[in-house]
Specification:
Elements: H1 14-21, H2 25-32, H3 40-53, H4 59-66, E1 71-76, H5 82-95, E2 101-106, H6 111-123, E3 128-132, H7 138-145, E4 150-153, E5 158-159, E6 162-165, H8 169-182, E7 188-192, H9 198-213, E8 223-225, H10 230-242, E9 249-252, H11 255-267, E10 277-282, E11 295-298, H12 301-316, E12 329-331
Parallel strand pairs: 1-2, 1-3, 3-4, 4-6, 7-8, 7-9, 9-10, 10-11
Antiparallel strand pairs: 5-6, 11-12
Helix pairs in contact: 1-2, 1-3, 5-12, 8-9, 10-11
């Protein structure tokens, strides 16, 4: 077992780390930049030496030597959204120990703004970009990828330096609607997302087709426009109730809309799920702690962020990357009840 020196300087060098771990300085450098293929024992020895010696890599020197800025650009849509926060957590986890730092900008679902933010990140000489959903077209992203490696969630991409990670939103919506039908519901209202969002449009299609496949009439009046926010869910439920529509369940196009819908029902004295059942979409962390805990369709958002960052680092190193396989699943909790 390698003995670690304890009488170290706070400004330890790569050579000191290498000597303490019993490896060459080149091996330490390769482990730090993620390009080394070494045994687990050797890697652990280096990591232990780094911790014991309080070694801090000279990022400027690494950048000059490698020609890289050691920075990853991240284009999100809303930094305060719990959905995007989960993706950012996944990216952050993937970057730990790699020497790369994130640079985050927001596009606010505006195509022109998103394009400007990508240009800004490129001008800042980031090494690659993760795009979290948004309104940019596949053609626009592929064009940007000719200049810089890009991984984009919510998109299908087939380009040399671009990778897309896309969930099957249509089948996720069918899964949610089918669950309500199997629980005996026939009058199912739908709180839609913004019409300009592809995910919102596809989820509406999945809801509609699931009804029709069970010979349940699709009624446009049972679809109320929301905005993917809690406020939109509240307004949608109030609109449904004031229209005198008869329904036993609500499918909210995302969890945030479901939270707002739940609050609106509570304020009207309507119980969930005894009077009205609710199902959401996303499985945000707060959904486990809603009252009652929310039945929803889980998107592995954290895992998508994690894999997006890992895949981007592979693209930056010129390594082949396969599109990850991420599936949606129904999470059954207590907000849906069976009816006759």
């Amino acid at each position: 077992m390698t003995k670690i020196m304890t009488d170290y300087s706070p400004t330890a060098t790569v050579h000191e780390v290498a000597r303490a771990a019993g490896v060459s300085p080149a091996t330490v450098s390769r482990i730090l930049n993620g390009s080394a293929r070494v045994s687990d024992a050797k890697r652990r020895a280096v990591e232990q030496a780094i911790a014991q010696l309080n070694y801090k890599p000279n990022l400027l020197a690494q950048s000059l030597k490698s020609g890289r800025a050691m920075t990853i650009g991240i284009l999100t849509q809303d930094v305060v959204s719990p959905f995007f926060t989960e993706s950012l957590r996944g990216i952050e986890s993937a970057l730990i120990g790699t020497g790369y730092a994130p640079l985050i900008v927001s596009g606010h679902w505006q195509q022109d703004e998103e394009s400007d933010r990508v240009e800004l990140l490129i001008a800042r000489r980031v090494d690659g970009i993760v795009i979290l959903s948004g309104s940019l077209s596949e053609a626009q992203i592929t064009t940007f990828a000719q200049r810089i490696p890009i991984v984009a969630t919510g998109h299908r991409l087939a380009a040399r330096r671009a990778l897309g990670i896309k969930f099957d939103q249509y089948n996720g919506a069918r899964l949610a609607t089918q669950h309500l039908i199997e629980m005996g519901h026939r009058r199912i209202a739908f709180i839609a997302g913004p019409v300009e969002h592809e995910d919102a449009r596809v989820r509406l299609e999945g809801y509609r087709d699931a009804l029709m496949n069970e010979r349940i009439a699709y009624e446009p009046d049972m679809v109320v426009q929301g905005n993917f926010l809690e406020s939109g869910g509240m307004l949608a439920v109030n609109q449904l109730l004031e229209s005198r529509q008869q329904f036993t369940a609500i499918f909210a196009a995302n969890d945030q809309s479901a939270y707002g819908a739940r609050l609106a029902l509570y304020r009207r004295g309507i119980r969930v799920p005894e009077d009205i059942s609710i199902i959401g979409f996303d499985d945000l962390p707060a959904s486990s702690y809603a009252t009652p805990p929310l039945t929803t369709v889980r998107q592995p958002v954290y895992e998508a962020g994690l894999m997006a960052a890992q895949s981007l680092l592979q693209l930056i190193r010129g390594e082949p990357v396969d599109s990850p396989d991420l599936t949606l699943e129904l999470i059954v909790r207590e907000s849906v009840r069976r009816i006759n």
